[in-house]
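To whoever picks this up:

The nightly regression suite flagged Carotenoid 9,10(9',10')-cleavage dioxygenase-like isoform X2 as changed. Nothing in the input moved, so I suspect the structure step. Input below, exactly as stored in the fixture:
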Amino acid sequence: MAASFVAFQVHCSAQKSPISLNSDHFKTLLSSTMFKLPLRIDISKAIKKTSVKLLDAFVDSAFEFTDQPLLPSQSNFAPIDELKEAVLVTSIDGEIPDGFPEGVYLRNGPNPLFGGLKSTKSIFGRSGHMWVEGEGMIHALYFGKGVEGNWTVCYNNRYVETETFKLEKQRNKPSFLPAAEGNSPAIVCAYVLNMLRYGQVNKYLSNTNIIEHSGKLYTIAENHLPQEIDILTLKALDMWDVNGAWNRPFTSHPKKAPGTGELVTFGIDATKPYAELGVISADGKKLVHRMDLKLNRCPLSHEILVTQRYNVFLDYALTVDLGRLLLGGPLIKYDKGGYARMGVMHRYGDADSIKWFEVKPNCTFHFINSFEDGDEIVIRGCRALESVIPGPDQGMNKFEWFSRKFRPIESTEGSLDAMSEDQLVFPRPYEWRLNMRTGHVKERNLTGTQFPMDFPLIHGAFTGLKNKYAYAQVRDCIASSSSGMAKYGGLVKLSFEEPNTGISSRQRQVEGLTKEEYHMFKENTFCTGASFVPKEGGIEEDDGWIITFVHNEDTNISQVYLIDTRNFSSEPVAKITLPCRVPYGFHGAYIPMQLHEKLTRMVPHA
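Regenerated output under the current build:
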């Protein structure tokens, strides 16, 4: 197949001749996959040539939707019904502590419509969803404090009702053909048919993170604009395009710049420009800076970083490549032999001002923080050496692949990076020091290989500034391996200015590592969406609590734990039992706000 041209053929009763598409035009058409905002295009010409009803009939006859079944050990990844209305929570073991602020704890995560993720099979092959897909659902726990100090706690959940959610909900059946993984012809066909039928090639999931900016709440996923959410009702409002100035997706982890409160984001696309950076005013009304990073590939970067003066981003070998897809390869692929580099630029700089630092190949989805330290930019994150996205190559058994990758590390003789092929998805805290004067890079592991750690969090007031502490979710290797899905059986507190005095598995102290304190849950109990809640009037950086959703798989009961970060290994100060099961999800946030009177209106008997 020539690189400059590809013939895509559809054989059906309504279309006898092949459809021939120039690959450059085809890439432009497909560029609004998961990675670019599909514009509101006029598809009237396509409709004139091919009836939407005829296309629907073709899809119904040629494509068979099948469930992507879950194993019993994966039961808490299954979707639940939405409540839409807040309910009073009365079962609280312990007490909500003094200094805990009124507010809302929210967590986002996938909750697929129609019972779960789907695959399709057809004459073009098979296509399916990745494990990170599924419509977003917000779970919210409201904390209101009365004038006499009494607490009212309410729970609610609700789907993030994006435009594509409403479309499928109205049709009351799976309608968008899955287009993330599978046989290349099937994925390409899904793109084209979704575009012709709906004007976009994939669903807006909005299932990954939840952020606040300028008093407004937004849900985000990499494939679209943020969706504004009413914090009290969880109802979806408008998409946020910064008054029309931003027409690309957001990263799932934009950052507030220290000092100014501006929001720094970036959006990726499968065609040039592959990545653009934006700086949004503190009031959220104006895009004050926008620039093309001028990358030569589309890295599926999940997060951007800030310091007092700089923006920092990772260009690494997990890429989105339409050309690769059209030649029969995967749309998303991690190249273990590919290069990685970190770019540092002034807040309002351009592409020519970026200072690039070559770093060791890695796959880092989540970063802890970044800050300036003399001539150095210090970056910390949960670094792995292989990607869990999209998963195994086409034709491989997914469960066996993930099960093998999630096994505990038995030993790492020699270097802490001397892992076997099946241990490369093991994330753990890591540090890069980029010297802006000399261009030199220093890298080191911050922890050993006892536990993998991911989904890190810090006190939000220290974003972009030097911080002493961080926290992360601790993956349970045995439970994750047996289920083929990542499960987090505890939390860790990292103290960067204190050395690790523990003993390694070989009965000797490992030099240069960071102090770790653990809060581990009971067996078969796992958490998601951990967030830091600062104490009102707190003085120290670690004055506060970790709040997290927790699910006990033996009892099938979901709770929210409050854990004192200054007595980290102690029992939670409060365990709040929820009225329904909460499936595992992704990221959470705690939004302080006065709530007591509002809760009375939300739940009349509160």
